[in-house]
UniProtKB/TrEMBL annotation:
Descriptive protein name: Pantothenate synthetase
Gene label: panC
Active site per the UniProt annotation: H37
A molecular function (GO) term: ATP binding
Entry's Gene Ontology BP terms: pantothenate biosynthetic process
Length: 280
């Protein structure tokens, strides 16, 4: 596995691969890798001859400095996992490489900035958009792979690719879950045993809400979700929405293309999850 920390050697490598007729798959991550990330590598390997993963904890997408400071960093383990997964190359830039001067530009994604993650994490998607734009320019991938768990982030990146005319195909990959249903996430590493025992309540609630949504109005489903999670003192619900799976606009009546999205704190650790109303 090739390891790059600078832009020009990475781009020279990518150019050489292209000249030999190979397609480039890209999996951007912030490290603290788990089986969910590795599933993206696996899917990319099936579709592309070269798979590049990036590991970079991007400071501009954190609107909470404490969250940034506590974000897990497991670089040595990450590199071992990527090697075992058959990743072709990894790009591990520093802040100096990604932001050689203070960032001045800000991106606004319109309506997506006002709901769910956009509403509760102001500035987050501007940071995501900027770093993904930079990485796409550096890696120049034919295809980029993202997890469904960050469904709104995928919608943001889809808009970014459309509006800025990136020649990159986007692939949204299914959520990887633990045996008890908890969506795999780097933040799960921060859960202590007691918190970890509580965390599956989010997925369990989504499963119940999916059934309720077929039986009652959306407003009543939201009330039942609030009541369900209100019984668990360790859980603080931030939002629960039933939204169009593509536009992520909240809907008042269920439709085929709908997603149930949730964000909640387990004590001080913020987790998100979602399910499609119907299998897609």
């Amino acid at each position: 596995m090739h390891i790059f920390t600078e832009i020009h050697p990475l781009q020279s490598y990518v150019q050489a691969q292209r000249q030999s007729g190979k397609t480039i798959g890209f999996v951007p991550t912030m490290g603290a890798l788990h089986a969910g990330h590795l599933s993206l590598i696996s899917i990319a390997k099936k579709e592309c001859e070269v798979v590049i993963c990036s590991i970079y904890v991007n400071p501009t997408q954190f609107n909470n400095s404490n969250d940034l400071a506590k974000y897990p960093r497991t670089l040595e383990t990450d590199q071992h996992l990527l090697q075992e997964a058959g990743c072709t190359a990894v790009f591990i830039p520093s802040d100096r490489i990604m932001y050689p001067q203070p960032l001045q530009i800000k991106l606004n994604f319109g309506y997506l900035e006002t709901v769910m993650e956009g509403k509760f994490r102001p500035g987050h998607f501007s940071g995501v958009g900027v770093v993904v734009s930079k990485l796409f320019h550096m890696v120049m991938p034919d295809a980029a792979y993202f997890g469904q768990k960050d469904l709104q982030q995928f919608a943001i990146i889809r808009q970014l690719v459309t509006d800025l005319s990136f020649n990159t195909r986007l692939v949204c990959c299914p959520i990887s879950r633990e045996k008890d249903g908890l969506a795999m996430s780097s933040r799960n590493m921060r859960l202590n045993p007691a918190q970890r025992a509580v965390a599956p309540i989010l997925y369990q609630t989504l499963q119940k809400a999916r059934q309720w949504a077929l039986q009652m109005p959306v407003a009543e489903v939201k009330q039942k979700v609030e009541l369900q999670l209100g019984k668990v003192p360790e859980v603080k619900l931030e939002y629960f929405e039933i939204a169009d799976s593509i536009t992520l606009q909240p809907i008042e009546e269920v439709r085929n293309q709908a997603s149930l999205c949730i964000a909640a704190y387990i004590d001080d650790i913020r987790l998100i999850d979602n399910v499609f109303l119907f299998d897609e």
